[in-house]
Design a protein that fits this description.
Elements (H helix, E strand, L loop, with lengths): L1 H15 L55 E4 L2 H5 L8 E5 L2 E3 L4 E11 L2 E10 L2 E12 L4 E6 L2 E7 L3
């Protein structure tokens, strides 16, 4: 009987020591210029269903303007925020009515507020002589210092650039 109790205790201890692995952080490169990223930019998220922007209970934002918490310059790597040579290919600038990238621009054709930290956008892109439309979620994380979006099935993780 004592052997069973000890075996049960050992199994319990082994299981207690297990924990879910933390997800891999993508797009993080430490090139020594991390100071260019704003790591303490506490923001106040836009209130749920802000009546000034959301037209109805569906969450559709009538004026198609991105809430202030999402606006600014965002880099895939720290150098995207500091480059003066024009080679910041991972820089995304979010304005109220558009997103700008290295070689393309996107205007908002539909915008839905899912929560104060998540939007669903339909974007009309143009760049390099081409035009296309893409649906993408835009999600704020880490107290507004990280913005994720999905492009071509790939999750892209941007860090807010310092002002």
């Amino acid at each position: 009987m004592a052997v069973r109790k000890m075996l049960a205790l050992a199994v319990g201890l082994l299981l207690a020591g297990c924990q879910a692995p933390t997800p891999e952080q993508k797009n993080q490169v430490d090139d020594g210029s991390a100071a260019a990223l704003n790591t303490i930019n506490a923001i106040e998220p836009v209130p749920e269903n802000d009546s000034a922007q959301i037209a109805d209970r569906s969450g559709i934002i009538a004026d198609k303007h991105i809430p202030p918490a999402f606006l600014g310059r965002w880099g895939l790597v720290p150098a995207d925020c500091t480059s003066t040579a024009g080679d910041n290919k991972g820089l995304m600038t979010v304005a109220p009515d558009r997103l700008s990238f290295y070689e393309s621009r996107a205007t908002i054709t539909r915008l839905e507020g899912v929560s104060s930290t998540e939007l669903r956008a339909t974007l009309a892109f143009s760049g390099e002589g081409q035009q296309w439309t893409e649906d993408t979620p835009l999600t704020l994380e880490e107290n507004g210092n990280v913005l994720t979006r999905v492009a071509d099935g790939q999750m892209l993780r941007y860090t807010r650039c310092a002002a």
